[in-house]
Design goal:
By secondary structure, the protein is α+β, with helices and mostly antiparallel strands. Helix content is 39%, strand content 19%. The strands form two sheets. Strands 3-4-5-2-1-8-9 form a seven-stranded mixed beta sheet. A two-stranded antiparallel sheet has the order 6-7. The longest helix is centred in the last third of the chain and has 13 residues. The relative contact order is 0.12. The mean pLDDT is 95.
Length: 232
């Protein structure tokens, strides 16, 4: 039996209104990422992200037709923000990265949910859920990793990091907030060998990631590993 998530946000009138508008395009829209992960772990959901197998122009059109405010927050990468009532929803068209420079990616849109999942960072962040809460785990290990509190890169840790060096810091932040026990050895080895890529990141982004990590209840393991790998 498939895992399901629940929560007030899932069935709120604002959520239903946005999903109804998106469905009018004939596309499939599913919750994705942090909201699915947090609901699965029975944590408070703050940000609601939605993935859709339609291009961003279509998304803007159907939302506008439904009189829902739309902000093209990351249009070139397929992301818009819908605002309905007091809630906002980040909606991103399914995509795959065709080229990356260690920080930014060139993308092309797709209708393949597994390809969209495969471009993400950690298995626990590559989970999708239908409007009724039914989870789709296209990579096969995201649910198990989340429930085991195991922060694991999708595929090769080295490849994922070289696509976006911010993922080095995200690894330690996510372990501080969600991980239990020892960190994944292959991920630590990859981080240690690729610390030079951190020079591509702005000081503001580094500071933001560090502050988020330090807001965890017990960031000590992550900090120790940052020191041992040379990241700190």
């Amino acid at each position: 039996m498939a895992e399901k998530i629940a929560g007030e946000w899932l069935f709120a009138p604002e959520t239903a209104g946005v999903l109804k508008a998106l469905k009018s395009s004939g596309a499939t829209a599913r919750f994705v990422g942090g909201c699915v992960r947090d609901a699965l772990l029975e944590r408070r959901v703050s940000d609601i992200d939605i993935a859709i197998d339609a291009d961003p122009n279509t998304v803007i059109r159907v939302l506008t037709d439904a009189e829902i405010r739309v902000i093209p927050t990351g249009f070139s990468h397929g992301t818009v923000t819908a605002v309905k009532g007091r809630r906002s929803f980040e909606i991103t068209s399914l995509r795959e990265d065709t080229h990356t420079d260690g920080r930014r990616a060139e993308v092309k849109f797709t209708k393949d949910w597994k390809k969209d999942a495969s471009r993400r960072d950690f298995t626990m962040n590559a989970l999708y859920a239908d409007p009724d809460g039914t989870i789709h785990d296209y990579l096969g290990s995201g649910v198990a990793d989340a429930l085991a509190r195991r922060v694991r890169f999708i595929g090769s840790a080295s490849d994922r990091i070289q696509e976006d060096y911010l993922r080095i810091l995200r690894l330690f932040r996510f372990h501080a907030h969600f991980g239990e026990g020892a960190m994944e050895p292959d991920a630590l080895v990859a981080c240690a060998g690729l610390t030079g890529g951190l020079e591509l990141l702005s000081k503001e982004r580094v500071g933001s990631e560090m502050l988020k990590m330090l807001s965890a209840q017990r960031p000590s393991v992550a900090l120790d590993m940052m020191e041992q790998t040379g990241v700190l």
